[in-house]
Amino acid sequence: MVWECQACGYIYDRKNVDKASEVSPPTDFPADWVCPICSVGPEFLEEVSGRSS
Ligand SMILES: [Zn+2]
Fold it and tell me: What is the rounded CA–CA span in Å between residue 12 and residue 29?
């Protein structure tokens, strides 16, 4: 599952962070996730459909 930050376009690919952050289903990203580029919260993340890195 891939998410895109609507503020800056940062791509959050869960496959790339699963092992590091250990986010458990059904949460797709941590509740306290902060964009590493523009520092917005998870409310700015939007699921990118049809893209599988
Ligand atoms: Zn961002």
Answer: 9
